[in-house]
Amino acid sequence: MAALRAWFAAHDFVEVETAALQVSPGNETHLHAFGTTLIAPDGAASPLYLRTSPEFACKKLLAAGEQRIVEFAKAFRNRERGALHHPEFTLVEWYRAGEPYQVLMADCAALIAEAARAAGVKQFSFRGRMADPFAAPERLTVAEAFSRFADIDLLATLPDGKPDRERLARAAQAANIRTAANDSWGDIFSRILVERIEGNLGIGRATLLDEYPSVQAALAKPASDPRVAERFELYICGVELANGFGELTDAVEQRRRLEQEMAEKQRLYGERYPIDEDFLAAVAAMPQACGIALGLDRLVMLATGASRIDQVLWAPISGI
Q1: Where are the alpha helices (DSSP H) in the chain?
Q2: For residue 282, which of 39, 63, 154, 313 is within the disulfide window of CB 3.0 to 4.6 Å?
Q3: Does residue 24 sit within a domain?
Q4: For residues 206 and 289, what is the distance between their CA atoms, to the nearest angstrom?
């Protein structure tokens, strides 16, 4: 953490600290929050949530005029526990105003190398997979990855940018990937990604998986091809480590996307979270910007060769 903080300070980032308690924890379909209740002095009760990331609060700071910010943020996600997941974890989240999202890719390469130097290692490892943290990352589009590892033409299933569920289901079945009758296009996309693609990414060197379908990037702006978005993920040793965007600054479109995400959450899980109106006001006032969140605990795992996230936490939650 000291090494990363020094890197950000040397690159003119201001370290910020935003509140963990929020009106909305985030509005992604498959992220689940911890809820709580605020009791006012007069006894009035208001629902609040522990944030799933500091994203909404950080974008409010961009709207207020900050140019380069970073937060080492405690984040909280329910229904997540395993080798790579812990209910409470640390995100390193940073934003650059007025810069293209590709600059975040260079940041990632620099931070991977900083982590390796701090740990005194020349390679990252996870469950027998290795990667050179000093090698230039590979940049691969999602469509290229689907073609290479699953022999699927992903963009053909997005005519005019709209997901064609039946076409993707047929392509998945032809690749011997199971589908269910009630699977959405997004369900099938995620299954192909997990079963055929992720394990092949970041082997030997980091992979920047770029140009996610726009329907899988609710907070990112469209790329030059509107079927895809300015969104990438960083993978090392098959582990997803960071998620970056060219930030959407159209508040009307952002509201539409968040409401769509919450409708899907209601369909799948029977719940939805509030939409933060202050966040939408900030989106309307934000400059063009890019931002990214990196899982610090996973980075430490890779740098130390740990096999489970619990092994790199000072005091993991016990009894679960």
Answers
A1: 2-10, 55-63, 102-119, 142-150, 165-174, 185-192, 251-269, 277-285, 296-304
A2: 63
A3: no
A4: 24
- Which pLDDT does position 318 carry in this prediction? 80
Chain centre to alpha carbon of residue 17? 19
234 in any annotated domain? yes
Is 276 in contact with 23 (CB distance < 8 Å)? Answer: yes
- How would you classify residue 177: left for phi > 0, otherwise alpha for psi between -120 and 50, otherwise beta? beta
Instruction: For the full predicted model, state whether its pTM sits above 0.90.
Output: yes
Residue 311, token pair as written in the block: 């092994």
| Ordered mean pLDDT values, 10 residues apiece, the chain (320 residues) | 98 98 95 97 97 98 98 96 96 98 98 98 96 98 98 95 95 95 94 96 98 95 95 98 97 96 94 96 97 98 96 87
Task: Say which amino acid occupies 150.
Answer: A
The distance of Cα 48 from the centroid of its chain, to the nearest Å, equals 22
Q: Identify the CATH number of the domain in which residue 15 sits.
A: 3.30.930.10
